[in-house]
Design brief:
Keywords: Heme, Iron, Metal-binding, Monooxygenase, Oxidoreductase. This is Cytochrome P450. InterPro entries: Cyt_P450 (IPR001128), Cyt_P450_B (IPR002397), Cyt_P450_CS (IPR017972), Cyt_P450_sf (IPR036396). GO terms for molecular function: heme binding; iron ion binding; monooxygenase activity; oxidoreductase activity, acting on paired donors, with incorporation or reduction of molecular oxygen. The chain is α+β, with helices and mostly antiparallel strands and 398 residues long. The protein is built from 15 helices and 16 strands. The chain has one domain: Cytochrome P450 (Cytochrome p450, Orthogonal Bundle). The strands form five sheets. It has a six-stranded mixed beta sheet, with helices on both faces. It has a three-stranded antiparallel beta sheet with strand order 2-14-15. A hairpin with a 2-residue loop joins strand 10 and strand 11. Helix 9 crosses helix 11 and helix 11 packs parallel to helix 15. It is globular and about 60 Å long. The chain starts with 13 loop residues before the first strand and ends with a strand.
Length: 398
């Protein structure tokens, strides 16, 4: 770790790096692994300019101090967002009130009741490709499997899946040119319109779904407004359709390239839960952001009120100061107290559901397709921000 006596100069801790860019597979992890070896923090002058904290100690300090580091932003590239995802972008007591009411919906026992639904959906998705001998794992399985669970929880019909996937792709994976920005804006408008109609429908005729339950929430003694419900639905959409998809992509990329690890999972399915924790740690996908509320320092880095701070969680979970041989993936690693789901009061509310979906996906895929490999004729690329593979062509014998 860099000490005060050996800290690099200002020039050495200044970057101009687009962490959201599309790059060859593994680039983002390798970039931050290198940065962390040189300094615990940097000033990134790309875009609006922001601080990058790139080690476990510093990232944990920021995540666990919500009074100094506000969650009113979700990306360092947008320091003045014109949207508010609820409850992710709330601070203080307002955030606590939302979390307290949402907590029972995502508690372990509530998620356990979804087990049959999650498993049947995984089996359905595997069966759709098993006899073909090949697929684009991202498009054909990783995107479709968790998305149907999301639709059911929100009380939406399964036949809307393709439309929601198209909207999600336009928003999360659009190109940075004007056409891409327009496409993303149009998709976001369509999503908001769809959820606005869902809210109106549930007010008229409640059902047994998350939207209907949220209609009865109260914040500071007042019923939740339609505007806040819409912001909540948008967060559910963004979190529910892309996070598990991205993580599944990294898991199967790793297993396709590491046959010994894949065989261990096939031979001993009871090891899958431990392996999932290691995949979450080794390939943490989320890059969080915070806004500084008052002048402060993080590991000697001076930050002023209003500054933006970028927090690539994989820079924490792959830090040798926190984990032995941290950049290597050991699917038998234990203990494994990673922060791939974040830390502090904003730790991911959906972590129990994500773990269950990942575990069941691994179980059911390997029952039908125990051996598979990467398509050697396809170059793989990843996108930053939320680090995920664009595609993952796999092949196997039928």
């Amino acid at each position: 770790m860099t000490t005060a006596d050996s800290r690099p100069s200002q020039a050495e801790t200044t970057l101009n790096y687009d962490y959201t860019a599309t790059q060859p597979v593994g680039t983002h992890f390798a970039t931050y692994d290198h940065l962390r070896s040189q300094s615990p923090w940097y000033r990134n002058e790309f875009g609006p300019g922001f601080w990058e904290v790139v080690n476990h100690e510093g990232i944990l300090q920021v995540l666990q101090d919500p009074e100094t580091f506000s969650s009113s932003v979700v990306t360092a590239m947008d320091p003045d967002p014109q949207y508010k995802w609820i409850p992710e972008m709330l601070d203080g007591d307002e955030h606590r009130q939302w979390r307290r009411q949402l907590g029972p919906l995502f508690a372990p026992k509530a998620i356990e009741r979804l087990d049959d639904t999650v498993r049947s959906r995984a089996i359905e998705c595997v069966d759709a490709v098993a006899d073909k001998g090949r697929c684009d794992f991202i498009a054909d399985f990783a995107a479709r499997f968790p998305s149907t669970i999301f639709l059911q929880m929100m009380g939406l019909p399964a036949d809307e899946l393709d439309q929601f996937l198209a909207w999600e792709n336009a928003i999360m994976h659009s190109t940075p040119d004007p056409a891409g920005r327009d496409s993303a804006a149009n998709a976001m408008g369509a999503v908001m319109g769809r959820f606005a109609s869902v809210i109106a429908e549930r007010r008229a005729e409640p059902r047994d779904d998350i939207v209907s339950k949220a209609l009865h929430y109260e914040i500071e003694g007042r019923p939740v407004s339609d505007a806040d419900l819409l912001s909540f639905c948008l967060l559910m959409f963004m979190a529910g359709l892309d996070t598990v998809t991205a993580t599944l992509g990294w898991i199967f990329w790793h297993l396709a390239d590491h046959p010994a690890d894949r065989q261990r999972i096939v031979d001993a399915p009871d090891t899958i839960s431990t392996a999932v924790e290691e995949f979450l740690r080794g390939y943490a996908i989320v890059t969080s952001a915070r806004r500084v509320t008052t002048d402060t320092t993080v590991q000697g880095c001076p930050m002023k009120a209003g500054d933006m701070v970028n927090l690539p969680l994989h820079a924490a979970t792959r830090d040798d100061a926190a984990f032995v041989d941290a950049t290597s993936v050991d699917i038998a690693r234990t203990p494994n107290n990673h922060i791939a789901f974040g830390a502090g009061p904003h730790r991911c509310l959906g972590s129990h559901l994500a773990r269950r979906e990942l575990r069941i996906a691994l179980e059911e895929w390997h029952r039908r397709i125990p051996t598979y490999r990467l398509d050697p004729n396809v170059a793989l690329y990843e996108t930053g921000g939320q680090v995920g593979l664009q595609s993952l062509p796999l092949r196997w014998e039928t």
